[in-house]
């Protein structure tokens, strides 16, 4: 690569790091890429590190030694996450979103890449210090959220199906009880989709009593996998603890109140923002 001016090099290095989160990049890669001395590259990285941390973009970790390098870890401060979630809550409080059964129409929000990107960065910040091999969700509405989270963690996505697909080969299927309507449903996962004993982060768009999440947790036992966390965008409020099928989870928003007659919807920040929470 031809030698660049420092200003251009800083822009290109920043883009390179943002595109490769959680990847240890040796300094020699940048030195060779820009035909520059390692000392100059180190100075550039110091500038980028300061900007990342000041602007709340993430952290730049430097590892010394022959096998060392630099690694970008996306981060979202709780203050930034709260501002983001408050904005999402205002959107979800629109009366026309109320559906029969107290559900909310969320597909348009889940279809906005900019919002999903920031939600994904928030989940990546919450769970980023845990050993995670894949992000798992169940089809279909949780897929954008799963991909956004996985992009910031730089890991694959595994999608649990409602029905087996002939194109995915042999699969494992289980029955589970929905926490909302108490009906029995089926979920399935291709055997080739997940390695045995993998570390898994489960994410979903909405949780009432946690039946779907519990189903995924039970399904993962068939793969001898370890659940490293459960993250949900919105949880339903007013659910008794005895009814919850998942004990340990992180929610970003909560459906606090719904009045079908007046169509009033009240949202609130989820348990991630509760005082004393340290995740």
From TrEMBL:
Keyword Transcription regulation: yes
Provenance organism: Paenibacillus antri
Pfam families listed in its UniProt record: Pribosyltran (PF00156), PuR_N (PF09182)
Transmembrane segments: none
Positions of the Phosphoribosyltransferase domain: 108-240
Family: Belongs to the purine/pyrimidine phosphoribosyltransferase family. PurR subfamily.
The protein's assembly and partners: Homodimer.
Domain Bacterial purine repressor N-terminal: 5-74
Protein keywords: DNA-binding, Transcription, Transcription regulation
Any GO BP: negative regulation of purine nucleobase metabolic process
Superkingdom to which the source organism belongs: Bacteria
CDD domains membership: PRTases_typeI
Protein name: Pur operon repressor
Any one GO molecular function term: DNA binding
């Amino acid at each position: 690569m031809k030698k660049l001016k420092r200003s251009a090099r800083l822009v290109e290095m920043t883009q390179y790091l943002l595109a490769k989160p959680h990847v240890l990049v040796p300094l020699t890669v940048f030195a060779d890429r820009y035909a520059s001395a390692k000392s100059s590259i180190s100075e550039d990285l110091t500038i980028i590190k300061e900007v990342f941390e000041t602007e709340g973009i993430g952290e730049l970790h430097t590892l010394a030694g022959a096998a060392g390098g630099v690694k970008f870890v996306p981060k979202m401060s709780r203050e930034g996450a709260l501002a983001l979630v408050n904005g999402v809550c205002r959107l979800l409080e629109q009366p026309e979103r109320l559906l029969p059964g107290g559900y909310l129409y969320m597909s348009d929000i889940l279809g906005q890449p900019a919002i999903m990107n920031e939600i994904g960065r928030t989940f990546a910040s919450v769970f980023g210090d845990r050993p995670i091999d894949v992000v798992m969700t169940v089809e279909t509405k949780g897929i954008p959220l799963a991909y956004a989270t996985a992009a910031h963690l730089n890991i694959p996505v595994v999608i649990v199906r409602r029905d087996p697909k002939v194109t995915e080969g042999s699969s494992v299927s289980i029955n589970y009880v929905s926490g909302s309507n108490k009906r029995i449903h089926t979920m399935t996962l291709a055997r080739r989709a997940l390695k045995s004993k993998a570390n898994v982060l489960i994410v979903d768009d909405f949780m009432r009593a946690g039946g779907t999440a519990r189903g995924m947790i039970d399904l993962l036992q068939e793969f001898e996998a370890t659940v490293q966390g459960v993250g949900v965008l919105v949880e339903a409020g007013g659910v008794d603890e005895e009814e919850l099928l998942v004990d340990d989870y992180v929610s970003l928003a909560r459906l606090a109140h719904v009045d079908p007659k007046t169509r009033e919807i009240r949202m609130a920040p989820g348990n991630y923002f509760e005082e004393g929470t340290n995740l």
